[in-house]
Amino acid sequence: MVVAAMALGIGLNSAVFSLVDALLLRPPAVAAPGRLAHVYSSVPGDPLSHAPMAFPDYEKVRDRARSFAGLAAYAWYPLALERDEGSELVLAELVTGNYFATLGVAPALGRVFGGLEDGPGAASPVVVLSNDGWHRHLAGAPDVVGRELRLNGRTFTVVGVAPRGFRSLIPGLAPDVWLPIHAGAALPTGITIDFGGWTPGVERTADRTSRWVWVTGRLRPGASAGQAHAEAGALAAELGRDFPATNARRAFTVVAARDVRLSPVVDRTLWGGSLLLMGVFALGLLLASVNVASLFLARALGRRHEITTRLAVGAARGRLVRQLFLEGLLLALAGGGLGLLLARASNAWLGRVALPAGAAVSWPLDLVLAPALDLRVLGFALAAAVLTAVVFALFPALEATRADLAGMLREIRAGASAGSSGRHRATLVAAQVAVSVVLLNGAGIALRSLVDTTRVDPGFDPERAAVVTVSPDLLGYPEQDAERLFARLRQRVSSLPGVRSTALASHLPLTFAINFSGGVAPAGGDAQMHGTWPLVDFASVGPGYFETMRIPLMAGRPFAETDDSTAPRVVIVNETLARRFWPDSPALGRRLKDGAEVIGVARDGKYRTLGERPRPFLYTSLRQDTRGTCALVVRTEGDPRPLLGAIRNAVREVDPRVPTGRPRPLAEAVAGALLLPRAAAGLLGFFAALGLLLAAVGILGVTAYLANARVGEIGLRLALGASRGAILRWLLRPGLAPVAVGLGVGAGLAVSAAWGLSGFLSGIWPIDLKSLLAAVSLLALAAGGAGFVPAWLAANLDPASALRRE
User: Which residues are bridge partners to 535 per DSSP?
Assistant: First the structure.
């Protein structure tokens, strides 16, 4: 029982720690990762304090910064890998020619990029495959070097394969291919991460307004990140003087790679969530340890004859403590070993699961988790085994070998559990109850949050609808050809049996898609310069969108086919944006600063998360704001699942080469909005049930032990005329008193823990009286039931039989 409890507790904690290790602790699989440093770009007041750089800025720092032995740039692009049966979306990392050399990554097969392949107009476009991409797309063919791949309509030659352990400098990202940055940037592409603008007609590698490359360098021997930061700051000031239009207030920041994993802002959020997750699992392990401690204490007290005899004949107490502790440590280590097998199985499962980070866009951004049992995880498991052994074995060993021989002999003669032993057992029971209250309250909060979140009106109807992403821009489709393809596709899918309506959109709400934001201001407002207009999220949607998504229009009309590039620019605003810009008058017919006319007001909805406050939102006409990648929404008569195959076939009939995402129900696409509440409710619910069970078992064990130790006294009291009710109350009192203490302490701890939980779950107050009262009541009922059973059995003993047993 002890080994099983420790295996479960240590195994689950090790699995969680290995996941945290993979995301936040494990250095990248490169040479001397401690010598790497990241270079960021920012402007005071920017929402993102550590942003990527413009490629010309990177070149300036690369050529002038003496603190770096090498400085590499990289960015991520979605590409279409063309195959005989169609196109497949892949994630590519565009890198400078010195990328692999700077990181010290040697290829597993072939070679990496050379200097001649890192320039505009390189004669022979080449790619390096990732190990995952090699096996996924070419079945691990040994003759892969020299093969050709068609990416976005252009032919590339495979020159090498990266080693198995190297994926990217960003944990979780796993590109399929690496391309030289100039060749990749020249490809036709769709959505890319860009924190600036994109000057039309200017190559991206020459555009100072487009900040799209991340920069990492290797420090020279003897140089520090602080020196590199000062040098980069001086270069930023120089660029500000030379190019005031784009760099006047821009600063460069150098941060040692060991101090950041994703970005300083994102890291803080990840650390907070990771510590909360590990805290929940640690509470589960603590609860199991306390329960086992009760068993060990009862077992050690059962050996009082042996221990007292050995002490009486001169055995050293320290030797007896070491013996008892070693027995517990061996059980904990055995449980830890089995727990590592559990963690290994969990890691193998997580290694095969790709968590979608984007939906309804062309980006194949699947977060590939790669937890492993490295030295840090093994050390964590060993430390957990030792600490749990200290909790459940050392304390009972010290109690069982205390030096008061006379007192121990009196307890043996009395056959009772009075004195400090009873107090210690009561303390353990109170601790179990307190931890269980915390877990039950947390589960109640998470469950209420989940229920409340599912009741939130998202502003649209995700049921009986399907969505598929289509990306003709990845194949270099001209804008007019892409529009014609979308029109044919919509017409073809609309003709399918069971389809009620269809519509196109740049992206959909609640799908973790990249949110477009732009400066928006009302005509005649105070904001005179485009750069000072407030940022508002927006989406480009086509005719039929509001009908297909079932978003009510509170006023005005939806977009029509005639709202194209030849017609005056029109927009639709949501209620929050209408109230903000025109609080005292109707929004219909009003104009924005860019001249667009408001033709409709849509009901407010949820756009990023279900827990967000009302957010201003703007809809533009897709025919006036064309997109190379669109999500096709299909409203069906019934369940959309039977139509998914037909929708995919319809796309292939229109153009078999066009890259598409996997058709899926719209409800499934937006299900990620409930991911955190569901995970929290499930996790806390599991540990709350475990805590309730362990607490009940602990109380049952204590009450049964007390009754068994006092069988003779019970028989004597019954023989002298004591009622069975009095015996029942006499036995329940010492067992339930620590329960009352644990409930009080646990309620206080639960309120404190809820403060942390309220930061991660929406709509929950830190003091949730309903959840707290439910947790306390449920645990009190469980404790009363667990204590009543052995007490009732003892109170119904036959007095003569009880006296004969004594």
Answer: 519
